[in-house]
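User: I'm new to structure prediction. If I give you an amino acid sequence, what do you actually give back? Let's try with this one:
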Amino acid sequence: MNTKLTLAAIAAVFAVSTASAQEGAVDFEKQILPVLKEQCFSCHEKEKEVDGRMKKPKGGLRLDGAAHIMKGGKEYPEENVVAGKPDASWLLKTMALPDTDEYAMPPEGKGDRVSAENQALIKKWIESGASFGSWKGVED
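Assistant: Good question. You get back a string of structure tokens that encode the predicted 3D arrangement of the chain. For your 140 residues, that looks like this:
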């Protein structure tokens, strides 16, 4: 058997399988971060001054940095995002609650609910390991 031909065949199979895996991969920075910025950051980012008053992140939960997302808030610390376990991840759970639930996010009057399509994307991101890629966000 020709060694060069065998190596070329192995390389081709690897390239196809890698490309297929990447097609289904969710890119946090391109696909998840824009959803969080648009629908969550106004209440869940670093403490800042607004109209002369300090505005703290609601529930102590910050979503503006990878470490903060994984840390969680005052309630359910370390369970905000549980890599590989979307059903155990409160970030997703609260988005999926009915509008009438007191824990639904965002709360009534605080913005539009996260669409089913974006919830499915977040679920897929969590299922696949909740990788942030090279994104770190705000680290302090």
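You can read the tokens as a compact description of the fold. Here is one thing that stands out. The CA atoms of residues 20 and 111 lie 36 Å apart.
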